[in-house]
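Predict the holo structure. Ligand: zinc ion.
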Amino acid sequence: MTAALTLPTAELHLHIEGTLEPELALKLAGRNGVELPFASVEELRAAYRFTDLQSFLDLYYACMAVLRTRADFRDLAAAYLTRAAAEGVRHAEIFFDAQAHTARGVPYKDVVGGLQDALDGAARLGMTGGLILCFLRDAPVEEAEAVWAEARRQPEALLGVGLDSAEVGNPATPFAHLYAEARALGLHAVAHAGEEGGPEYVWEALRELRAERIDHGIRSLEDPQLVRHLAEHRIPLTVCPFSNVRLRAVPSLAEHPLPAMLAAGLRVTVNSDDPAYFGGYAGQNLAAVAEQFGLDRSSLAELARNSVTASFAPDGRQAELLGEIDAWEAGA
Ligand SMILES: Nc1ncnc2[nH]cnc12
Ligand SMILES: [Zn+2]
């Protein structure tokens, strides 16, 4: 087995709806009497040809229509956690798109309840983690406000808030008041930026949302002043190599800016984004970049350490995981 597949790591950029494998999608479609425009696993997989972020989002939102009950969300997250654990993920901070479910009439409490049921069960796998509620930046802000009105009543169910969906032309600033409220409740703040959008989107997430981590951020390199800022303030970037290639944010893995980002002193982590759709989970993303860029054991360990120290896990848990990474690096 590739060494990277056993590296203990933290997954910081993972949309739970993006872990919906075709087999489970069809099973849930049957269980819930939901019609999908795909009759078989093969037909569904054949639709995984994306030209950009929007072409992916269209399929992503269509497929998640099969998720209807608390048990569905539990089964989805339990399947992800089992698979991630097998690839070395020891801590997972999981994004969920609540609005995409409440808009279909699924109660917020069933979404969060089901995801939490699965996380409770993950303790058996020795895994820890939490939930990050993402606002959809391409939907009216009133929809985000409505879901937040429910979420804020139970902030202890969340680690933080995030911002995702179609980036270009959908500024972050209208969501700033929700982030301010979330911070006041003690929640963390992250945001997608610099995936398809330019460095100005990263600046906006930092300035207006006070994002502690930037999800993707691969276009930051286009602005030397931004690179200096990110490096100086040690702001983590949750990079997703397979996603960037499959959504054509970069032309190929060989041309991915990851090595340049590391060379620029950026605090990079490697993650999977929507692994069911992009061809691999966290360990496979790590294995692929290790092979592509000839990363040795200590460079891989450094990426894993970044993921742990950039996580929102308590200090004690971080220390435990850093110990596991040291042992892995020493070849234990
Ligand atoms: N890569 C991505 N970018 C923005 N929103 C997303 N939602 C799920 N995956 C996403
Ligand atoms: Zn993402």
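Residues 15, 18, 53, 60, 164-165, 192, 195, 243, 273-274 surround adenine (ligand 1) (CB under 6 Å). Residues 9-321 form a domain with the TIM Barrel fold (CATH 3.20.20.140).
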